[in-house]
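Q&A log
Question type: sequence-to-structure
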Amino acid sequence: MSALATGGIVFVCVFGGALLGLFMHRLLPDHHTSSDTKDVVKLGMGLLATMAALVLSLLIASAKGSYDTQSREVTQLAANIAIVDRALAYYGPEAKDIRDNLRRSMGLIVEQMWPTDASRRAELDPASTKAEGLYEQLQALSPQTEAQRSLKAEALRVAVEFAQTRSLLFAQRGSSIPLPFLVILIFWVAVIFVSFGLFAPRNATVIVALLVCALSVSCAIFLILELDQPFQGFIQVSSAPLRSALARLGQ
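Response status: OK
Response body:
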């Protein structure tokens, strides 16, 4: 399910809870709406609101950490590929075929990670491109001088780091947000909004305020889910580092 659809479900649950509270207010006997009852409910909802805030902050921190980690890994990919290309350029004309293949492979990687067709999902599997054959091509080089041997060793080292980073991106493709956390959080917030509606006066100002608050909570959940899937949706890891490195390959 997309983050937008989940955010919509959260909004319906939360705002629906507020409307349910407003409806229940009419059914409650007078002694259930006394000041003592309100105080007890407020204490309980205060505890619940504190727990919900802690879980919400934990989920935001987890999603933001996952997004930042994968963004750094994409930047590292761009740096590694640029280093390999420069090493091969200094190696000499013998490495021209490898550089050409590297440029083609990088173009395919960028297209698969950020497809131009919006209906396609990002492909992070390292085996889906020919980039994994880079190591074998580098191994096949036969250096004639000490400088070439040094450049070959450096290119091999960076190529291994490149493969490791791509494997990390593939391994991290799943969600870092535990589903039970999300379900429990939505339940808590819905209960809190029921309590808001339960003792609130029924007028347009209250309904609009509850509507805005419910929308804010659903936007927070939407933001968490978007950050947790950085290669799809509205908030994506920037492809600029890899595209910039691709533009300079072979020069």
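Response note: DSSP finds eight helices and no strands in the chain.
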